[in-house]
Amino acid sequence: MRTLRRFSRESGGAYTVEFAIVGSLFIILALVLCQYAMVYLARDSLALALQQATRSLLTGTFQQSNAGSTDQVQILRNLQASICGQNLDSHDWMFRCTDLKLDVRVASSFTSSSASASAVTAGNWAAGFGSTYACPGPKSIAVVRAAVKYPLFARGLSFGLSAFSDGSALLQAAAVFRVEPYQSGSGSAC
User: DSSP secondary structure string, the chain?
Assistant: First the structure.
């Protein structure tokens, strides 16, 4: 009992206790801010890379360079390489390009150009997402979606970011545009 009274009167360690309380909250806040900043930068990097890569789809040069190919997986890999570079490493400082999934569809009008189903269902990639390539022909409307699984470093502090069962976040970007009139050859898949 005597020790308890002495402990309640002692004020020598009050600053240490206060710093421990306030300092831990500050560290948590700093981690959350850093995590959200990294997610924002990665999402912006994905959107910019997609906009730059879809320029070749917009002008028809991508379709012409892949005119002889009918393998959707290979064509999507070629588009992925145009986003990330031939070695798939130019954006690795923000997100792993090997985890990048693309979905290219053709819409009949801008009002019907809604995105396909969600990229994630039940905490995993949706079946079939990232394997569709519908060749956008001249003057058609193309809907291009890119999605990447982005690992979070403070999963307990994700606050609505995680879409995957392992706590990773889903980053998405989309581009909807009318393809310019280009010369499609007789061997073209479009």
Answer: -HHHHHHHH--TTHHHHHHHHHHHHHHHHHHHHHHHHHHHHHHHHHHHHHHHHHHHHHHTHHHHHTTT---HHHHHHHHHHHHHTTTT-TTTTTS-GGG-EEEEEEESSSTT----S-SEETTEEPTTTT--B----TT-EEEEEEEEEE--S-GGG-TT-B-STTSPEEEEEEEEEEPPP----TT---
